[in-house]
Design brief:
- The protein is of the alpha/beta class.
- It has ten helices and ten strands.
- Strands 1-2-3-4-5-7-10 form a seven-stranded mixed sheet, sandwiched between helices. The chain has a three-stranded mixed sheet with strand order 6-8-9.
- Helix 2 (about 85-100) packs antiparallel against helix 9 (about 225-240) and helix 4 (about 150-160) packs across helix 5.
- The chain is globular, with a radius of gyration of 18 Å.
- The model has no long low-confidence stretch (mean pLDDT about 95).
Length: about 260
């Protein structure tokens, strides 16, 4: 097993496992997550000895979204959060790397998958969810928009009506509803979700790897023909939103555990 402090990598035979490892925060996303996932996807996970990859979260959650308390580096021009840099350099390379990895990537969602955590789960090829898990694009609750590729992955999975519902309302989508909508492939009891994930990833790891790679390449082109352009657009729009009063109010309300008072400015 090799690891950073917050993301673990383990290879067992042809199976590689990535585990987000900040259980005390329900695996709230920090910059190190993105860097570590990207390094793993470009490094050991890309080795030919690895034929399928599983991504999950330690403890009770998959990922509860961005760690707002960790904050963002300030932009040198205005001192405001440099969201564009963070998305370009940390978040989006990890997401795009998963989509381009020429082997199956399975998400085992064992709890909340919210915000960028939802984006990470949906970036995977197949998604298993525990019965108690839930999904959500909670960005709107702090005055932001979906990023991490969610504006690609969600409408491709659930269609226009439900994509706008998730983006605008920021509501929780329980596992069973996520299955009905097409966000996930399978729902299993909490006590057996990890075992079921292991069975699936082992099956894929012993399957026709080149077939999977070709299917993934063709489906990527059909479903996400301009993934880089869409990620760039998300970064630009999000960067601008991070300079609004609504974003400041949303973060303040989140930290203070109160309802935000948005003004549309």
């Amino acid at each position: 097993m090799t690891s950073s402090d917050t993301v673990l990598w383990e290879q067992s035979g042809p199976v590689g496992r990535i585990t987000l490892n900040r259980p005390e925060t329900l695996n709230a996303w920090i910059a190190e997550f993105g860097q570590a996932i990207h390094d793993i996807v470009e490094g050991p996970a890309a080795d030919q000895s690895v034929r399928a990859v599983l991504i999950t979260g330690a403890g009770r959650g998959f990922s509860s979204g961005a760690d707002l308390k960790a904050g963002f580096d300030p932009h040198p021009d205005d001192g405001m959060p440099d969201v564009r840099k963070e998305l370009h350099n940390v978040y989006h390379p990890a997401i795009a790397g998963i989509r381009r990895l020429p082997k199956p990537v399975v998400a085992c969602v064992n709890g909340p998958a919210v915000g960028i955590g939802c984006s990470l789960a949906l970036a995977c090829d197949l998604v298993l969810a525990a019965e108690s898990s839930f999904f959500g694009l909670a960005f709107v609750n702090i005055g932001l928009m979906p990023d991490g590729g969610s504006t690609l992955f969600v409408p491709a999975a659930v269609g226009k009506a439900r994509a706008f519902q998730m983006a605008f309302l920021g509501e929780r989508i329980p596992a069973q509803k996520a299955l009905e909508w097409g966000l996930v492939n399978f729902v299993y009891p909490d006590e057996s979700i990890r075992e079921e994930a292991d069975v699936l990833v082992e099956k894929l790891a012993n399957g026709p790897t080149l077939s999977y790679a070709s299917s993934k390449q063709a489906l990527n082109r059909m479903l996400y023909p301009d993934i880089d352009g869409q990620l760039d657009l998300e970064a630009e729009l999000q960067h601008a939103l991070a300079r609004t009063r609504d974003f400041g109010e949303g973060v303040g309300a989140f930290v203070e555990k109160r309802d935000p008072a948005f003004t549309g400015a």
